[in-house]
Design goal:
29% of the residues lie in helices and 27% in strands. The protein is of the alpha+beta class.
Length: 174
């Protein structure tokens, strides 16, 4: 199968080799399934086995070091390796977690005074690299949150949102 990208679960088979690096060549067997619930046909590769990784022309040997880490430590390392992406994503999309306190929450992204609804923004900056590039650019980025219609009287301040998140226990997600 040839693809421009592939999302895979970080299974024990992959963890035995440590972190992947740009340019690594992966080989594995897996079960191909297709998701026909969407308009376009999307293929998934599940249950990878017989994993091997070649780096700079040399096949890697398992080192098992990542298997000894806790789930929380792995998540922390993943976020550290991808900190630019997470900084961009966390700034731009404050609603990855459901905010029940504001049931009609709408977030408008302002890019140099040009407003985008969340849906418009995601369509334009759906790609990880585009998101990082935007966040690192010298464009003026601003997020405005509303509870209900987009009107000045419905604005939710950033300090109110931050205070709400500080009171919540999100340990169930990690």
């Amino acid at each position: 199968m040839i693809a421009d990208h592939l999302w895979m679960n970080l299974t024990k088979q992959f963890l035995t080799y440590g972190w992947l690096e740009k340019g690594d060549v992966l080989q594995f067997d897996g079960r191909i399934t297709d998701d026909q619930s969407k308009q376009e046909k999307i293929y998934d590769i599940e249950q990878p086995t017989k994993v091997s990784i070649v780096r700079n022309g040399v096949e890697l040997m398992p080192d098992f070091v990542l298997l000894k880490k806790t789930y929380a430590d792995l998540v922390k390392e993943i976020k550290e390796h991808n900190k630019e992406y997470y900084a961009a994503r966390d700034f731009i999309d404050a609603t990855y977690l459901t905010i029940q306190h504001w049931p009609k929450l709408q977030v408008i992204m302002m890019i140099d005074e040009q407003p985008y609804t969340q849906e418009e923004f995601k369509q334009r900056y759906f790609d990880r690299d585009a998101l990082i590039e935007l966040h690192n650019s010298d464009k003026v980025l601003k997020r405005i949150s509303y509870n209900g219609e987009v009107k000045s009287e419905n604005i939710i301040s950033e300090s109110d949102i931050n205070a709400y998140f500080e009171k919540q226990d999100f340990s169930q997600f990690f």
